[in-house]
Design a protein that fits this description.
The chain is built from six helices and four strands. With 180 residues, the protein is α/β, with parallel strands linked by helices. Strands 3-2-1-4 form a four-stranded parallel sheet.
Length: 180
């Protein structure tokens, strides 16, 4: 068992060393953020402020996509697809984050840490990974404590669903915006 622990530690050390060296030697071409991620839960991205200076955005949407740590291919696909949608979105400011629970293997923790460093669009909840035991409740009850700024609507989606942000924003424009 200690052999695998030392290998995991060595891989983590090598990955972080290469990441650091890449940033030191190529600081202008080395980016940590994805096209649509701002900071961990910071809602004021430079891209959003650029869009809002050209258009009057009347909605702010936060989309949490519930996923599992080992489904990194799905997250990469969704990042690509949703980033293309966000460039054409004119009626809403949409912030997307991938959400899962903290219970994961050491290897998964290493890959998730690297993914956070590169894309910075992951929220890790204080719960155990489950299907029908309150992950959605934990997501919605945690958001008020970690989100900065106000959102008109907060959305929960799964990683096997595809959202059309333009249609979603258009359907929400005339809906009431009253907190109960």
């Amino acid at each position: 068992m200690s052999f695998f622990t030392s290998i995991t530690t060595l891989l983590l050390f090598i990955s972080l060393t290469l990441l650091t060296l890449g940033y030191i030697f190529y600081p202008t071409s080395f980016r940590f953020n994805s096209p649509f991620a701002s900071s961990f839960c910071n809602t004021a991205s430079s891209e959003s402020s650029h869009v809002s200076s050209n258009y009057s955005l009347s909605l702010r949407l936060f989309v949490g996509i519930l996923t599992m740590p080992h489904l990194h291919e799905r997250r990469h696909l969704l990042r690509s697809v949703y980033s293309m949608q966000k460039h054409n979105l004119r009626t809403a400011d949409v912030n997307i984050r991938f959400v899962f629970c903290h219970s994961m293997s050491e290897e998964a923790k290493m890959f998730i840490a690297l993914e956070i460093m590169q894309y910075n669009d992951i929220i890790i909840l204080n719960c155990t990974e489950n299907l029908n035991e309150g992950k959605t409740y934990t997501y919605f009850s945690t958001l008020p404590t970690i989100l900065e700024g106000r959102y008109v609507y907060v959305v929960k989606a799964d990683d096997d669903a595809y959202l059309r942000f333009d249609n979603l924003a258009e359907s929400l424009l005339d809906k009431p915006r009253i907190d109960f």
